[in-house]
Design goal:
Elements: H1 9-20, H2 24-33, H3 38-46, H4 65-77, H5 86-90, H6 92-98, H7 101-113, E1 118-122, E2 138-142, E3 145-153, E4 163-169, E5 183-189, H8 190-193, E6 198-202, E7 212-222, E8 226-227, H9 233-239, H10 241-269, E9 271-272, E10 275-276, H11 281-309, H12 315-339, H13 351-359, H14 368-379
Parallel strand pairs: 1-4
Antiparallel strand pairs: 2-3, 3-7, 4-5, 5-8, 6-7, 9-10
The structure holds flavin-adenine dinucleotide (FAD).
Length: 386
């Protein structure tokens, strides 16, 4: 579709043009009404952007991860939010890497053209939290099916998805067994499951995120929907985490750029005491610092992308990119609201909305503390803390 270039400038331009049709008033209204951006997601799907990472043989664009990052960054840079649909871009990775040929041929073309939405990712549970090995949802083999019982929480976009990647325990933890083994990935067809053992309940959150809790009550899932080998699910889920972290980091960079631009614009335009507030160093310096920190984080995102595309699965760089980019967008949000003074709190300026939206990345999809623990243990060689 496009000549590849390091910065994917043609892709960025095309995505920015699409996003311009969905201005601030669009996102503000959705936020106020706690509504899903159906038209935006449809436009992205029709333009093929959500199929960027699916190989061409399955109907996707077969673009590298850096193109996916450019698409998501531009959405956020334009003031929008990709949280409603980014999973359609990357959740299929579990199926692509570990599914059988028959499963890939069955599902990927539909995911590529948007006829099938694979947007739900059921890993987190209320009691296990970050400790995935402690999850309690079970899938017990019964003839040609698995019977699933349990609960997930924070299963985002479940109401706007046809399929769900589900991690459940298929083998009880026995003495001496690692608790991260015995977990399996099932592809749940939510269209058949809803009302037949699957219940989805929305959770209202501080930003408009379409997240839910999901209950399984003797839900029957065909054994043919097991992805890869039984018991190896934790490894499969883990294998997609670095790509996800890099893509989310790109969204944070987009947020930071939007927030910094907004702060600079207001600092130049707002006059108090007879001069632009941006003439005061007390206003300039925090914005300049936020800009420098955003640029440094952006370099780490690029480093992680470069390594990923060179065939390494860069755990340290992907985690650092997510950590630094989430910090940069959080700092930019704080600075932007401060620069706007009282108006930063008014909905019509969109700053408070972005402030709420970008705060999420300190916690999800992986919290800052867990990234620091990873770096301390796996990069710096200090003892495991948990
Ligand atoms: C809006 C939203 C959308 C989400 N979407 C999805 C989704 O689609 N699918 C999905 O599966 N999950 C999803 N999540 C879940 C998200 O991945 C988790 O919230 C996140 O990983 C943190 O887990 P927890 O909330 O259970 O926190 P906990 O594990 O309970 O941790 C609470 C706090 O304690 C800290 N902590 C825990 N253990 C340690 C330790 N050993 N050392 C230091 N600090 C520690 C954590 O960093 C955190 O700050 C979503 C969450 C939110 C809020």
């Amino acid at each position: 579709m496009f000549e590849p270039d390091a910065d994917h400038s043609e892709i960025r331009e095309a995505v920015a043009k699409l996003c311009a049709k969905f201005p601030a008033t669009y996102w503000r209204t959705l936020d106020r009404d706690v509504a899903y951006p159906t038209e935006f997601v449809r436009a992205l799907t029709e333009a093929g952007w959500l199929a960027a990472l699916i190989p061409e043989e399955y109907g996707g664009a077969g673009l590298p991860l850096s193109a996916g990052a450019a698409i998501l960054e531009e959405i956020h840079r334009s003031g929008g939010n990709a949280g409603a649909c980014h999973a359609q871009m990357y959740t299929m990775g579990t199926l692509l890497r570990h599914g059988s040929e028959a499963q890939k041929a069955l599902y990927l073309p539909g995911i590529a053209d948007g006829a099938l939405r694979l947007q739900a990712f059921g890993v987190t549970e209320p009691t296990s939290g970050t400790d995935t090995g402690a999850l309690q949802t079970t899938a017990v083999r019964d003839g040609d099916d698995f019977v699933v019982n349990g609960q997930k929480i924070w299963t985002s976009r479940a109401e706007h998805s046809d399929l769900m990647i589900l991690l459940a325990r298929t083998t009880p933890v026995a003495d001496g067994m690692k608790k991260t083994s015995g977990l399996s990935v099932l592809l749940v067809d939510m269209r058949e499951a809803l009302g037949h053992g699957l219940t989805v309940r929305p959770i209202r959150t501080m930003m408009n995120h379409a997240t839910t809790e999901v209950f399984f009550d003797d839900l029957r899932v065909p054994a043919a929907n097991l992805i890869g080998e039984e018991g190896k699910g934790f490894r499969y889920i883990l294998s997609g985490m670095n790509a996800e972290r890099i893509l989310i980091a790109a969204e944070c960079i987009g947020d930071a750029k939007w927030l910094i631009e907004k702060a600079v614009g207001y600092a130049k335009e707002r006059t108090v005491f007879g001069r632009a507030i941006g003439q005061n160093q007390g206003i300039q310096f925090p914005i300049a610092r936020a800009y420098a920190n955003m640029r440094a984080a952006e370099l780490m995102v690029r480093d992680a992308l470069g390594q990923y595309e060179a065939g390494v699965n860069p755990g340290a760089e992907a985690n650092m990119a997510k950590l630094l980019a989430a910090d940069a967008s959080n700092e930019a949000a704080n600075v932007c609201i401060q620069t706007h003074g009282g108006f930063g709190f008014a909905e019509e300026y969109d700053v408070e909305r972005k402030f709420r939206e970008t705060r999420l990345y300190q916690v999800a999809p992986i919290s800052t503390n867990l990234i620091l623990s990873y770096l301390a243990e796996h990069v710096l060689g200090m003892p495991r803390s948990y």
